């Protein structure tokens, strides 16, 4: 369901201050892709078929290859494996990701630039490369919610995984891939996602994107998040063996 002044775009977008860290813009992608699509619209902004508030090539694409496994297996990596590697675990309501405190460790004097404060659970990186908090510009945490969660206000980047439903509001901005195994709702001042969203809608309730919510495709946001979130993990087996 699309309404209000919501916008969904499959056209490639670049973030502020990213500059040479991104390749040239890629070809347009479908704004919305899914199997057996049923799209409801309300308001003049989203009228027509395809909806006027959806852009891309094509704006809407039905694709029978989109199945349950699309949301749970990504090449050789599964949703569960990514969740196990999470840097930040969230639940309930998350209010105000605070970009003005990202780079200042607890106890630092006011005005200190400091280093990126990885210990702060509200630090989801700094997607705006033009700010003076750029110590966290290359920090891309994996954020995981084991159930339904609501996120309101602030900005961050990385990989966002939600096993339940995701409710976004308060103009929160997130840069990178978002995978929701339940329903996605973005209302009021809404959420602004730059990268891509995969919402399974397991309960068959409609995804609701209204207000001034925005979902913009960004190849650079996705590639930066995937590369930045990659890390070396220890083998589950011991790293030594006894010699006889």
Could you walk me through the main structural features you see in this protein, from its secondary elements to its overall organization?
With 244 residues, the chain is mainly β. Helices cover 7% and strands 29% of the residues. It is built from 2 helices and 16 strands. It starts with 6 loop residues before the first strand and ends in a 15-residue tail after the last helix. Residues 232-236 have low confidence and may be disordered.
Q: What gap, in angstroms, lies between the N and C termini?
A: 67 Å
Point out poorly predicted stretches: 232-236
Largest sheet: 12 strands, parallel
**Estimated helix fraction:** under 10%
Number of strands: 16
Along the chain, the helix and strand elements come as EEEEEEHEEEEEEEEEEH
* Contiguous helical run count: 2
- Outline type: globular
Radius of gyration: 19 Å
Strand content: 25-35%
Mean pLDDT: 82
Structural class: mainly beta
């Amino acid at each position: 369901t699309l309404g209000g002044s919501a916008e969904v775009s499959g056209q490639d977008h670049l973030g502020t201050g990213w500059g040479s860290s991104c390749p040239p813009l890629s070809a347009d992608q479908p704004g919305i892709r899914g199997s057996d699509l049923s799209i409801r619209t309300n308001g003049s902004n989203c009228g027509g078929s395809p909806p006027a508030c959806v852009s891309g090539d094509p704006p809407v694409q039905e694709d029978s290859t989109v199945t349950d496994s699309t949301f749970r297996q990504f090449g050789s990596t599964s949703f569960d494996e990514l969740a196990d590697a999470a840097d930040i675990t969230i639940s309930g309501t998350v209010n105000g990701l605070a970009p003005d405190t990202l780079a200042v460790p607890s106890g630092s004097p006011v005005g200190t630039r400091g280093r990126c404060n990885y210990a702060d659970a509200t630090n989801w990186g700094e997607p705006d490369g033009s700010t003076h908090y750029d110590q966290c510009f290359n920090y891309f945490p994996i954020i995981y919610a084991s159930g339904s969660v609501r996120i309101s206000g602030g900005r961050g980047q990385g990989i966002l995984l939600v096993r339940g439903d995701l409710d976004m509001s308060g103009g929160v901005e997130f840069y990178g891939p978002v995978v929701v195994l339940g329903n996605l709702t973005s209302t009021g001042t809404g959420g602004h996602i730059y990268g891509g969203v995969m919402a399974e809608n397991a309960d068959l309730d409609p995804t609701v994107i209204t207000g001034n919510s925005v979902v913009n495709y960004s190849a650079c946001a996705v590639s930066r998040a995937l590369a930045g979130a990659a890390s070396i993990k220890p083998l589950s087996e011991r790293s030594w063996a006894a010699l006889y």
